[in-house]
Amino acid sequence: MTSTIEVSNTLLQEEEEGTKLGWPDVVVIVVYFVFVLGVGLFSSWKSQRGTVSGYFLASRNMHWIPVGASLFASNIGSGHFIGLAGSGAAAGIGVAGFEQSAVYVLMLLGWLFVPVYMSSGVYTMPEYLRERFGGQRIRVYLSFLALLLYIFTKISADLYAGALFIQLALNKTSPEWLYLSILFLLAVAAVFTIAGGLTAVVWTDFVQTILMIVGAFILMVISFIKVGGYESLVERFPYATATVRAVDAQNNHCGEPPSDYMNLLRTIEPGKSDYPWTGMIFGLSINSIWYWCTDQVIVQRTLASKNMCHAKAGCILAAYLKFLPLWLLVFPGMAARVLYPDRVACASPELCEKICGSRGGCSNIAYAELVLNLLPSGLSGMMLAVMMAALMSSLTSIFNSASTIFTIDVWGLLRQRLVHRLRLSVTPSDTELLIVGRFFVLALVAVSVLWIPVIQ
């Protein structure tokens, strides 16, 4: 009992002291924001944002390199940094199966789906289904379904992950800091999306992809060095358990990682695996095809390509980049458990709640622990910038795609009912559609702000 109290007091003292960002970190973050703002504003100035095609599809003139980078950045949000590292810390490399499945599905996107989408000349997936099957009901249903999914799953998850990391980095738990941080990031993301449309979003995604890969690679190397290399990590991981664990007469292995922690495909025996191979092969394939081949956020980047060759090349680049999360995120998460088992692998609900505010465990703080404890001043700021880049890449992609769906699919239907009442022209002008799209981005920002008390 005495040792339990001592460990608890030590952990809480470490958390209260925290690791605060120094002035070199602040300088790095400021430089990052200035540079990204410069890229976004310059690309906005160069883009043909005065037309519907220019604003929503970058005039269908994007090179394959930014297309591939934007596919990757749109997928890898701050939730991936928190979630993949946390899942790696909790259960090993099994979660990387979600990333590996994207490799072959991206080939399906480039060679099977995109040729059909491009030949149809559509802007959105609901619009394509309207052209393919006829009737408005399926178009309206899928439009509202997509918007609801963006608001209740994607935006909320990214804001939660970003807020968690920012609070840990700033060592601030007051709601004022949470609101200020999220509001600032939302404002920057909204500026890119409203001012430059998809062109600005894709080019800032390209810059932020480079930043994410470089920053995560540096942290991965330092993590492997600290644990003694790859072989040492594999050897030490199953023994990385917390000093204080919950007392459970029915479970003598509480807080221990699974024995198959180095298996991507795991047993289908009930209760023995988090990632059964049947689900990872068959169930995940269906889910991946829906996400990578029919989701507006992803497909819209390929529709912005110069031609079919650039769309396919962008898919190939994104597929290669999807091999990286296993090494850049999952293995560092496992290293965090080895280095900080009492915090990352805590198994006492009471102690976990004091450490990270969750009684279910603290594996989600794995990546933040590495950033704040391993990196020297300056590099910590760069990694915080990486997390902000991941959050903003995801948010700008969601804002732009949701705005496209609302403007092309939803507003068109509403407009038909308002033509005579408001004496509108039968055919909407480009100016009208652009105004509607930009105002909807502002509405999404307002909805995102309303999510802050929930994620708090």
UniProtKB/TrEMBL annotation:
User: Which one Pfam family would you cite for this protein?
Assistant: SSF
Q: Which GO terms describe its molecular function?
A: D-glucose:sodium symporter activity
Compartments where found: Membrane
The reply to whether Plastid figures as a keyword in the UniProt entry is no
Leader sequence residues: none
One Gene Ontology cellular component: plasma membrane
**Key words, A-Z:** Membrane, Transmembrane, Transmembrane helix
| Main subcellular location | membrane
The membrane-topology field of this record reads: Multi-pass membrane protein
Which positions, given as ranges, span the membrane?
A: 21-42, 63-82, 102-126, 138-157, 177-203, 210-229, 275-293, 314-335, 382-414, 435-455
Family recorded in the similarity comment:
Belongs to the sodium:solute symporter (SSF) (TC 2.A.21) family.
Listed name of the protein: Uncharacterized protein
Q: Which species is the source of this protein?
A: Cherax quadricarinatus (Australian red claw crayfish)
